[in-house]
Task: inverse folding
């Protein structure tokens, strides 16, 4: 029985004229991959020693609807998605032709306030979740955090990002001493670099939230797109890390106090039953980074509470696809890993 034409990777898809701003196979199929030369931006810091983090538990199970070798979106869906999504889908098609199942991302140490570079993989199955707006795993959220870290660096915003891999509840519970050390040293490094905020995505077990810590105002906002989650594990860890930071930085003792935790912060709420917390977390981090330089007091940090529109989710997907194509896959991309073979 022949497969439907919209599920074949060999289907030719032409890039849309204007993108919205969001088993191995026996037969060879061709798909054109296009890339765009990116602008690279790097900054070097004198970095405190930070140990290598333990690995978090994988929380998102492989999507049962993902089938390696079949198109992730139909041709009509791809045309609506945007040119970068088309290019990323073609990358998957070309990878399938040579039995690849992932690509690698090389992160720069300064983006997550780490002592050294690191390499992680993005499985094609994780891309499927990105394409269909499903539950996002660590590789996608980590990549979006790198996209934001690079963006605020280029725009010279007073923001630093932490590694979502290090800040998940599973890592905190597995090696609390590591995470305390990581956050404490990140606070010192951010303060030394005149950063006013630390921001990160946190996986609480089966849910993503965005966290914003203001060093100046000693305030932490927990931006949660779904009510009913508790953050005691993270609150206690941040309190201890911040206390150590103040203790070991005498010049910062004046005017500093204990952290104030705002856990009922108003923000966009995802629809009931949706698995879009990863997209909401990405948007909340992006929004928080965009307004950071404009804030004059903590009361000015306000978000709407309605659900995000489909166009916003599409924009996030298109930006993430563009990051992969121009900054990871492209050989002159800042996060390109040469040994990956792309």
Result:
């Amino acid at each position: 029985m022949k497969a439907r034409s919209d599920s074949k990777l060999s289907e030719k898809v032409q890039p849309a004229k204007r993108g919205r701003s969001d088993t191995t196979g026996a037969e060879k199929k061709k798909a054109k991959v296009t890339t765009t030369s990116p602008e690279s931006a790097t900054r070097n810091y004198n970095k405190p020693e930070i140990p290598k983090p333990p690995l978090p538990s994988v929380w998102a199970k492989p999507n049962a609807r993902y089938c390696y070798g079949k198109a992730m979106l139909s041709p009509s869906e791809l045309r609506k998605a945007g040119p970068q999504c088309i290019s990323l889908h073609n990358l998957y098609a070309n990878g399938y032709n040579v039995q690849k199942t992932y690509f690698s991302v090389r992160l720069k140490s300064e983006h997550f306030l780490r002592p050294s570079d690191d390499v992680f993989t993005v499985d094609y199955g994780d891309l499927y979740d990105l394409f269909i707006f499903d539950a996002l795993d660590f590789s996608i959220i980590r990549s979006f955090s790198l996209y934001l870290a690079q963006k605020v660096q280029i725009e010279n915003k007073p923001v630093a990002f932490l590694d979502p891999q290090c800040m998940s509840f599973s890592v905190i519970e597995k090696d609390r001493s590591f995470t305390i050390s990581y956050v404490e040293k990140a606070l010192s490094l951010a303060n030394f670099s005149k950063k006013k905020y630390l921001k990160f995505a946190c996986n609480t077990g089966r849910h993503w939230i965005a966290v914003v810590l203001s060093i100046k105002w000693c305030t932490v906002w927990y931006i949660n797109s779904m009510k009913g989650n508790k953050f005691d594990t993270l609150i206690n860890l941040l309190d201890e890390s911040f206390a150590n930071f103040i203790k070991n930085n005498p010049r910062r003792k004046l005017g500093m106090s204990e952290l104030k935790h705002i856990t009922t912060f108003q923000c966009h709420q995802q629809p009931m039953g949706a698995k879009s917390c990863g997209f909401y977390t990405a948007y909340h981090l992006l929004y928080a980074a965009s307004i950071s330089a404009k804030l004059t007091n903590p009361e000015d940090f306000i978000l709407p509470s309605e659900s995000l529109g489909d166009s916003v989710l599409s924009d996030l997907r298109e930006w993430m696809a563009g990051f992969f194509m121009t900054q990871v896959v492209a050989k002159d991309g800042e996060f390109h890993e040469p040994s990956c073979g792309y």
The radius of gyration is 20 Å. The chain is about 35% helix and 10% strand. Confidence is low (pLDDT under 50) at residues 1-51. The CA atoms of residues 201 and 210 lie 5 Å apart.
